[in-house]
Amino acid sequence: MDTLILKTGETALSDLSLKAAEILSRGGLLAFPTETVYGLGGNGLDPSAARRIYEAKGRPSDNPLILHIASKEQLPTLVKRIPETAVRLMDRFWPGPLTLIFEKADLVPAETTGGLKTVAVRMPSHPVAQAILSHCEFPVAAPSANRSGRPSTTKASHVIEDLDGRVEAIVDDGETPIGLESTIVDLTGDVPVLLRPGYVTLSELEEVVGPVETDPAIRRESILKKQEFTGRPKAPGMKYRHYAPKAPLTVVSGTAMEVSEALNGIADEKTGILTVDEHRHLYKKGAVLSLGTLKDPETVAHSLFDVLRTCDTLGLQRIYSEDFSEGALGEPIMNRLLKAAGGDLVSPRELKGGTRMIAVGCDHGGFELKEKILAHLKERGIEYTDLGCYSAESVDYPVYAKKVAHMVAEGKAELGILICTTGIGVSMAANKVRGVRAALCSDPLSAELTRLHNNANVLCMAGGIIGPNLALRITDTFLDTAFSNVERHARRVGMIEED
Ligand code: TXA
Ligand code: MG
User: Quick check: 488 pLDDT over 80?
Assistant: First the structure.
């Protein structure tokens, strides 16, 4: 099939959008720009158009499509019920980069929703998308206009790369303004649930509708390779590997100094390095690609997919990226980046080939659990030093707490693990040693947050309270979560050392 390219600068928008709508009305496929990314559109009420979309994308047909509408008046025909939370979110964010999930009306075919009883709807704000949609008498189903698994498309040239010959037409409007796909919120339960982070942030949503839950599937630890996530994501699309460039990508989390030092040691001309303008000068080797500036996180969001595609055209063999958690868009940017990396996140120390060393200690109340943890570390291939005690006979807990604390404070171990009956005594003793931040954790969330926010370096657990299964999950989360290094957290951790 010959794909028609419709350039927005060359034809009046009214003519171009009429023509585009005509293609869609005839059952054709049309790629068009939105404020987020390019979409691959088809008539959302026509099962055969939906099937053609899946085929053109090479996408599994259980992954539902988003319906795009020109005005809110179209919504009641597509959904069973419009909850009050939806009304408030639409008033605030529509038209714009927010997709809402409703119970679907019978009019919407199962082909469009991947067999689900719910339907995703969004009203884009992009003037070209608006013009096209306003000429259509049906909602337009449009996933991102990329081949399945590839980075989403933010330029017409990306769309041509992926879909030329597979669709009737592509509307070329240059770059899309935001560059990340829409935020998705599920409104079919009692509490709104965030299914995909995007330009509209969690705190902006909460300002409008109060507490919003986050689907566990999009939490950072669920995306990381070192973690085993067994839950089922509510947005089916989130289970697939996404956005991946051809060369393997690894995210290196640490200060720019540490990251650049580690990369300068291993990079060559076939190594891509993703950074920001402010850190560019730190890299002495490799193909250094800046995504934008720290002063404006929107620049990083805007060019992320483009830079991932550039890595392919440069023929790179290995790609490393800094961690872009900082700033208001840190969450959606890292969600895409870590997916592109297949969850491969390492510390500069690991990158330099440094093996991890974990110092482990306990008193008699923690002896049994400590043995289980050591066996688990061994199974995972993580090196450790067992500082005792070595039996369940009564001992003085500060002796062992201090041994572990000193090993960590002196840099001989990266992290420490301490156990007594309640975990409290060992944490008190360890925290007396300068440079140690010991955290008592009884659940994986605390373990994750204390690594992310407090850079805790000794994990304390209660051998008399928590069972071995939970303890191993807490241990894994603690060991596999890197400090976020966001400025406000870095500053606060620094304050802990002040008198
Ligand atoms: O910004 C965007 O949303 C872009 C532009 C083109 O509008 N579209 C987009 O579509 O990103 P797509 O298909 O690439 O991603 C849609 C995501 C998928 O992960 C899909 O599983 C999820 O939305 N989704 C769609 N319908 C759903 C439903 N009824 N329930 C849960 N998740 C749904
Ligand atoms: Mg997509």
Answer: yes
Cα–Cα distance, 489 to 115 (Å, whole number):
44
- Which ligand 1 atom is at minimum distance from the Cα of 236? 21
Give the pair of three-digit tokens for residue 455: 């850079």
Show Cβ contacts of residue 402 under 8 Å, excluding neighbours closer than 6 positions: 429, 430, 432, 433
Contact 40, 142 (CB under 8 A): yes
Burial class (CB in 10 A: 0-12, 13-18, 19+), 19: middle
Cα radius of gyration (the chain): 25
- Whether 363 is catalytic is yes
Domain boundaries, the chain: 4-224, 249-351, 357-497
- Count how many Cα atoms sit within 13 Å of the Cα of residue 276 in the half-sphere of its side chain: 20
Distance from residue 4's CA to the centre of ligand 2 (Å) = 23
CB atoms within 10 A of CB 77: 13
Please give the backbone phi and psi of residue 179, each rounded to the nearest 5 degrees, phi first: 95, -10
Measured from the Cβ of residue 166, the count of other Cβ atoms closer than 10 Å reads 18
Residue at token pair 């191993």:
472
Q: Which CATH superfamily is domain 249-351 in?
A: Threonylcarbamoyl-AMP synthase, C-terminal domain (3.40.50.11030)
Is residue 422 part of the annotated active site? The answer reads: yes
Burial class (CB in 10 A: 0-12, 13-18, 19+), 12: exposed
Secondary structure element (H or E) that encloses residue 419, with its range: strand 415-420
3-class DSSP state for residue 272?
A: strand
Are the CB atoms for 32 and 38 separated by under 8 Å? yes
Nearest to 326 by CA among 391, 389, 255: 255
End-to-end CA distance of the chain: 72
The pLDDT tens digits for 8-44 are 999 999 999 999 999 999 999 999 999 999 999 999 9
In this structure, is the dihedral angle defined by the CA atoms of residues 432, 396, 424 and 347, taken in order, positive or negative?
positive
On whether the CB atoms of residues 118 and 130 are closer than 8 A, the answer is no
| Residues 111-167 pLDDT 10s | 999 999 999 999 999 999 999 999 999 999 999 999 999 999 999 999 999 999 999
Would you say the CATH fold of 249-351 matches that of 4-224?
no
Could you say which of 135, 385, 386, 453 is catalytic?
A: 453
Residue from 363, 450, 460, 475 carrying the catalytic annotation: 363
Q: Which residues surround ligand 2, an ion (CB under 5 A)?
A: 144
Best mutation site among 181, 242, 243, 304 for ligand 1, i.e. most ligand atoms within 8 A of its Cβ?
A: 181
Which residue in 322, 337, 319 sits closest to 266, CA to CA? 319
Residue 319 has a CB neighbour count (10 Å cut-off) of 27
> Measuring CA to CA, which residue among 444, 474, 464, 482 is closest to residue 373?
474
- Considering the domain delimited by 357-497, tell me its CATH architecture: 3-Layer(aba) Sandwich (3.40)
Class of domain 4-224: alpha beta
Tokens coding 241: 């590997």
The set of residues, in sequence order, having a beta carbon less than 8 Å from that of 444 and lying 6+ positions away, is: 221, 473, 474, 476, 477
